[in-house]
Amino acid sequence: MSGAKTALGWIGATPHRVEDEALLRGRGRFIDDLSPVPGAMHLALVRSPFAHARIRAIDASAAAESPGALAVLTGADLAAVSRPLGAVIRGAAEHYAAAVDVARYAGEPVAVVVAGDRYLAEDAAELVEVDYEPLEAVLDPLVAAEAGHVVSDRSFRYGDPEAALADAALVVRGRYPFGRWTAAPVECFGVIADWDHAADSLTVWANFQGPFTLHTVAAGALGLPAARLRLVTPPDSGGSFGVKAGVFSSIVLAGLTSKICGVPVRWIEDRLEHLAAAGSATHRVTDVEAGFASDGELLALRYDVIEDVGAYLRAPEPATLYRMHGSLTGAYGVSNVAVRNRVVCTNRCPTGLNRGFGGPQLYLALERVMARGAAGLGLDPAEVARRNLVPAESFPYRTPTGALYDSGDYAACLNDALDAADYRGRRQLQAARRAGGEGRHRLGIGLACVVEPSISNMGYISLAETAAERAAGWPKSGNAEGATLAMNPLGGVTVRLSTVPQGQGHRTVAAQVAAQALGLRPADVEVQSEMDTHVNAWTVSSGNYSSRFAGIGAAAVAEAAERLAEKLRCIAGDVLECAPADIELRDGQARVVGQPDRGVSLRRLAGAAHWNPESLPSGLEPGLAVTAFVSAPNLDPPNEADEVASSAAHGFVVDVAAVEVDTVTGAVRVLDYVTVHDAGTLLHPRLVDGQILGSFAHGLGPALLEQTVHDDEGNLLTGSFMDYLCATATEVPPLRILHRCTPSPFTALGAKGLGEGNTMSAPAALANAVGDALGLSDLDLPFTAPRVWERLAAAGEGGDRP
Amino acid sequence: MSSHSEIAVTVNGRRYREAVAERMLLSDFLRQRLGLTGTHVGCEHGVCGSCTVHLDGAAVRSCLLLAVQTDGADVRTVEGLADGERLHPLQEAFREHFALQCGFCTPGILMAAADFLAHNPAPARNEIAEMLAGHLCRCTGYAPIIDAIAAASGSGAE
Amino acid sequence: MKPPPFRYVRPDSVEEALEVLGEHGEEAKVLAGGCSLVPMLNMRLARPEVLVDVNRLEALSGVACDNGSVTIGATVRQAALERSPQLRRELPLAAACTPYIGHFVTRNRGTIGGSLAHADARGELPLALVTLGGSVLAQSQRGQRSIAAEDLFVYHFTSALAHEELLTAVHWPAAGPGWGYGFAETAQRHGDYALAMVACALARRDGAVVEARLGLGAVADRPLLASEAAEVLVGQDLGGPAGDGAVAEAARLAAAAAEPFDDLHASAAYRRRLVAVLGEQVIRAAWESASGTSGSAG
Ligand code: FES
Ligand code: FES
């Protein structure tokens, strides 16, 4: 039955989500549902229509006279009372909340209008006259690299890649561009800001998702000590997938506007603004070389990567480039690898967190050359994968670039996937069809084996600096999280999280974890998901990203609950006159192990602790509230050899995609899609599958449909949901999910993150499948029917052939 | 200045008499004037479906209607879907099938699905998918939503 | 994304509506289902001074069938074409293309008259009306006139309706004995504007096509009739040995007749290709469905 306790207790059970009742009744509390301060004025932004233009003058006089308008502020007005947003590395243009003198991407804010409601604010915004002098725009990463817009250029070398490539029987080379796309949560950004001039402090409510490193960045730009920037997130957020990390620059914009105007302000981003200016994944072009021995052994990898981060290097970029650094060799046991990473600026919107975060781009290149290597050697790609997978007995496994892979049985997962997909049968069918002279519809099978890192090392970004530069600064490392747990006088439990859920069901899982430790039912545990930087236990790494909840967020809850349980056992031991170690917490009782009738209710213990602290065993602190912080192990700062354990846990995903391509229309149909996951211990298997399904849809999007497109002048062509094609129910094919479980030795509950794996694997698997179907090595994403058809026509195939 | 009109509208069985700016969207009226924030706004151009409500029994996009157009009409929002304490069968099915994550798209889908099932009591899976294609959900990948609607329908097909 | 200011008028009669339209001309916009107009208002791409809401005009909401034609009031919702058994029977082609118009929820509100007056070159109903050779009734204070479908669509988003005219009703030729219909489109996603669409209506008697019409949508600045292509089918037994050749030739001519353009989503060449592929498909579907007494569209 759904929701029943498993043999292991509540962990691994599938209770209903505690979030759902309110959400189903329309009683969620999202940012635009809140009115935390009375009298907030509404903002509308004037945005640059040009990708690159000098702002010669701004005439706001007509706008200021517009009915209901309170003020119009220019970028220069905001800059006058702020500092630029801090960046990880120098070299890019200074970035303020709104453009000063020069606008560097279409959609960049250039002025802010404050008015009584959004309708009036938009009326006034239309009246702001900006005199632009258009400048030449750079939009393509390769052009940007040529033109010298490189803000970081680092080369890394591990093992002896040159020698290994020279020895290889086969070297496969390829260029794999991964265009921009955006996770596009259905809820846009929202910020409510209230500057208190008396206290010279700012309180902001925003659907920001973390990481709270960006709280520091925002405070810096606002010129505030961090303690005077109070940031509160609403209990509910309408999805983020990384994107809402980007809210931080709007927090600065709204905060400054409130400061200057002396009123609280409210900015609710609309969809056109979101698609133009909220942020997106990077545009990356990867040149890759892979050397193979004749038996399929992968001998070396060499990457040359150019990453477009947009007009400004917005924190935490260039993190997209380094998030996967420890996993550049993917799931394969190769020891020679070289990479050159160039970060370039273009006249496109600044990039940022976006589901998969560097993984989709890396694995597209890596998995394509693995498949092509197999083809080049006349071997089956599954055999080549198997030949190279990190063997089960080598865990924990240190990759050449420094990651410490915790656990897994990659070959077993591959076997599971091949079996489930009837790989052999499909290959036979394919061979038979090819032998018969293939007709209009071509069958293709694609494989992807990806390591899914979770719980990012806060220090990996510093790889953008040289070892010497790093040595001159402060080292950064680790990934920690805090949680607070309290038992009230009647024995009820509250938990306060700093993981800022965006729909994943953290409250449900936190209740399971706490209930497990305290011998209660999840329903006895009330979980608060609001983040309030003045209230919560948090640190810079707090927040919702790098699939860190199961591994570290839930671990913080477990640790706090365990400490509270320990305290309850002490009190109970005193009452029951036995050693605390002999007490077990079960069914709302503290009982002597093995003597079920010797017990006391938790409610009574809680009452005693609150009402009669004098009765507590001596030395025991009064109160029943615990705040615990935990930190993931092994996440040292990058070392002098530029090795970094970029993540704490590593799940494994194998996908097998079977597609059919209609050569007459170019249409790609997914016939079957199997994914096998090993994410360690599953805390709530139904929520796990939900993450996998969502992550798959987000990977399928950029593979088959979604792309953020600008024209040659830098105008956004995909500026509405009419043209930015989010996959809908009719485009997402059924997904068959299988699990394996090798618990992580590095996380408290053995769980690994799993919310991004298929976003990383699906583009690669589908690219391999389509490539296999058509025998083309250089088909670029997304595989929309018109694009596939054009490519076939160019190859003299399909096209005009019926 | 924009003009105002007085409207009388029934929402979730309750009568309201309000002066509204003629250009005010129904979605804003419901959310900002009546405090019925269960109706969500995700695009304001009719694509995402999260603003879907019932107007005189038919599912419509509230971002594509003016509040003034509902004068004399009967509107139902997600807040009016359950029968008091008892959840609507669709709401039950959504909970049972884990058909929501962030829940932002959910109210619109519930309202659309309720009307859809009234016209198609036993839909096939692909018919449900085609109806659902009018709604964006970026969390669930849709499959659990199709499961839930199928379960709540007469066909009960999973 | 909030509409600019305008004055909202809800006339009580067609006469009153015409009066407002006559008075404001170009500055007035008719508000029907709002599925196309309101997004444009929200994006401030349209800024009429006056919005004339015709949704409550009883006179525009009727359906009448007589003598082989069906007259549908301008504000009848698109959903009626899929839900009314009578309309499905009488107008199989329009019914067949309706599921492709937007989505379930937008069809509840979107009107048949509105989608014709909007004159979107990618619209399904404009294509159906052109293919069937229907017409619309336009009224103004000066009187009323009938506009043939082929004359109604001037170019993308521009109809032959004058600013002071109101589209009040649509005349559709009803399905006759021996007629069959086919409709197909290709879009990026279900419910999106098509990259190309083709509709076919043909009459079959004594084992051969006696009359054929072939319409192309989304491949020109208006729905097109591919008359030369349709002509090829006349006199042919499409199920017979020469049938394949005739169908292929008609599809080829249809593709040649298209006037497609490049855009973000697809090239002109691709759209032309689709016309040929879809053309064959719908001609066959029309032929098949014409075999029965009442046509069911494919
Ligand atoms: S907000 Fe109405 S459809 Fe998106
Ligand atoms: S549940 Fe988040 S968008 Fe659907």
- Tertiary shape of chain C: globular
Give the distinct bound molecules.
FE2/S2 (inorganic) cluster
Question: What CATH first level of the largest domain in chain C would be assigned?
Answer: Alpha Beta
Which percent range describes the beta-strand content of chain A? 15-25%
DSSP helical segment count of chain C: 12
- In which order are the strands of the major sheet of chain A placed? 3-5-1-12-9-10-11
Number of strands of chain C: 14
Strand order of the largest sheet of chain C: 4-5-10-6-7
Low-confidence stretches of chain C: 293-298
Structure description:
- The complex is a heterotrimer of chains A (802), B (158) and C (298).
- Chain A has 802 residues and is of the alpha+beta class.
- Chain A folds into three domains: 41-136 and 189-269, Aldehyde oxidase/xanthine dehydrogenase, a/b hammerhead (Aldehyde Oxidoreductase, domain 3, Alpha-Beta Complex), CATH 3.90.1170; 283-390 and 401-459 and 636-794, Aldehyde Oxidoreductase, domain 4, CATH 3.30.365.10; 480-631, Aldehyde Oxidoreductase, domain 4 (2-Layer Sandwich), CATH 3.30.365.10.
- Chain A is built from 21 helices and 28 strands.
- In chain A, strands 3-5-1-12-9-10-11 form a seven-stranded mixed β-sheet. Chain A has a five-stranded mixed β-sheet with strand order 7-15-14-13-8, with helices on both faces.
- The longest helix of chain A has 28 residues, at 549-576.
- Chain A starts with 19 loop residues before the first helix and ends in an 8-residue tail after the last helix.
- Chain B is of the alpha+beta class and 158 residues long.
- Chain B has two domains: 4-78, Ubiquitin-like (UB roll) (Roll); 89-152, [2Fe-2S]-binding domain (DNA polymerase, domain 1, Orthogonal Bundle), CATH 1.10.150.120.
- Chain B has five helices and five strands, in the order ββαβββαααα.
- Chain B has helices at 26-33, 89-96, 106-119, 125-132, 143-152; strands spanning 4-11, 14-21, 52-55, 58-61, 74-76.
- Chain B has a five-stranded mixed β-sheet with strand order 2-1-5-3-4, covered by helices on one side.
- In chain B, strand 1 and strand 2 (14-21) form a beta hairpin.
- Chain B is globular and about 45 Å long.
- With 298 residues, chain C is α+β, with helices and mostly antiparallel strands.
- Chain C has three domains: 7-53, Uridine Diphospho-n-acetylenolpyruvylglucosamine Reductase, domain 2 (2-Layer Sandwich), CATH 3.30.43; 58-173, Uridine Diphospho-n-acetylenolpyruvylglucosamine Reductase, domain 3 (2-Layer Sandwich); 179-289, 2-Layer Sandwich (Enolase-like, domain 1), CATH 3.30.390.
- In chain C, strands 4-5-10-6-7 form a five-stranded antiparallel β-sheet. Chain C has a four-stranded antiparallel β-sheet with strand order 11-12-13-14, sandwiched between helices. In chain C, strands 1-3-2 form a three-stranded parallel β-sheet, covered by helices on one side.
- The longest helix of chain C is centred in the C-terminal third of the chain and has 23 residues, at 268-290.
- Chains A and B meet through helix 1 and helix 19 of A and helix 2, helix 3, helix 4 and helix 5 of B.
- The structure holds FE2/S2 (inorganic) cluster (2 copies).
